[in-house]
Amino acid sequence: MKKKVALIFGGRSVERDISVITAVQTYRHLDDKKYAVTPVFLYEGDFYTGDMKSIKDFAPFVPSNHKKLVLVSGKFYYVKKDKMIVALKPDVVVNCCHGGEGENGVLSGVFEFNGLPHTSPSLLPSALCMDKAVSKELFENMLFNQVKHFVFSRKEWERDSDKVLFHAESFLRYPLIVKPARLGSSIGIGVAYKREDLISAIDIAGEFDDKIIVEEKLTDFIEVNCAAFKDGDKIVVSETEQPLSTSDFLSFNDKYSTGKMGGGGHIIPAEIGDLNSQVKALTERIYRELEMSGVVRADYLVDVKREKIYLNEINTVPGSLAHYLFESAGITFKDLLDKMINTAIEDHLDRKSRTHNFSTGVLDNFKGGGKTQKV
């Protein structure tokens, strides 16, 4: 019997369009002999389903062309003549939502609350990795190299910009990179070589997030990505990737302007010599210690001359599910999806088997009534 798959994508993130691309790619590579796939689009906090013939069905998305769903106790329902009709009871959820609810732990929490296996990390690691400011503190405590940085809120900037500039310029050296703390795909990122650039970059970042990071920009480095996923009890680490950029950092245009994921191409493995093995080892350590699941991609900045590796950020739902990074190991996109789905279901059943109901017996001895009692 085919497994019922809910393919979730969309969301309120500015990366929604990228999510659509990932979902269409995933839909085309899910084996129709093994899976009955229902596309579920997340739009303005609501779920919708309908045909998934092409990207054009979702760009732009027209809610009236799709059936609205609600998720209750692990089942998706639609309403017909004031009655709730079951549309789908998934065996597993494949999460293709980039940023927003898809990566900040909200959807993970929703799926777990509903008792649904899903192919992304649980709530805690998702939330930690989505917030770059919080994750930097975590990575520092894990003894990963971090670029010097300064974090502040949009309200602090609006209230006293001179104070923010003073702290940034006192603690950091130009050139600087300015980032929204909880965004992906290089959206809202700017480079500053002087104060005027810094002011402009902060204003732009503040349009996307109310928490902003300013960090020193390395001048001699290579951007390197490496992914991992869990296959049963084994963590499989990908080959390293060196994305190619036309600018001094990997911008949104570099990634997507060519009309395909990955933009201007990449070099696999990355041209960082023996440091490749260190990047792979670090990626496996991150995956294991943060108790990840699904496919996760770690992004690094590598200073080859000084042989220093900086952990930049973690993507818990990477674009195209980073399937291309495993091809050199003979793992196709179809194989990757099979392994992700099987492991998600196995882990869910394992957790369920180890969940015990414990009764304290307190309520058996508690006497109710009008008077307040000490508890």
What's a quick, concise take on this entry?
Helices cover 31% and strands 26% of the residues. It has 375 residues and is of the alpha+beta class. The strands form 4 sheets. Strands 6-5-4-3-2-1-7 form a 7-stranded mixed beta sheet. Strands 8-11-9-10 form a 4-stranded antiparallel beta sheet. The chain has a 4-stranded antiparallel beta sheet with strand order 13-12-16-17.
Can you describe what's shown?
- The chain is an alpha+beta fold and 375 residues long.
- The protein folds into three domains: 3-118, Rossmann fold (3-Layer(aba) Sandwich); 148-216, Dna Ligase, domain 1 (2-Layer Sandwich); 220-347, D-amino Acid Aminotransferase, Chain A, domain 1.
- The protein is built from twelve helices and 17 strands.
- It has helices at 16-29, 100-103, 106-113, 123-130, 132-141, 154-159, 161-171, 195-206, 252-256, 275-289, 333-353, 362-365; strands at 3-10, 35-43, 46-49, 67-72, 75-80, 83-88, 92-95, 149-153, 176-180, 190-192, 211-216, 222-231, 234-237, 242-243, 266-267, 296-303, 308-315.
- Strands 6-5-4-3-2-1-7 form a seven-stranded mixed β-sheet. A four-stranded antiparallel β-sheet has the order 8-11-9-10. It has a four-stranded antiparallel β-sheet with strand order 13-12-16-17.
- The radius of gyration is 23 Å and the shape is globular.
Shape by Cα distribution: globular
Q: Alpha-carbon distance between the termini?
A: 52 Å
Largest sheet: 7 strands, mixed
Quick one: how many beta strands? 17
**Total domain units:** 3
Mean pLDDT: 90
Helix content range of the residues, please?
Answer: 25-40%
Number of helices: 12
- Full CATH superfamily name of the largest domain: ATP-grasp fold, B domain
The CATH topology label of the largest domain is D-amino Acid Aminotransferase, Chain A, domain 1
The sequence of SSEs as H and E is: EHEEEEEEHHHHEHHEEHEEEEHEHEEHH
User: Which strand order does the major sheet show?
Assistant: 6-5-4-3-2-1-7
Percent strand equals 25-35%
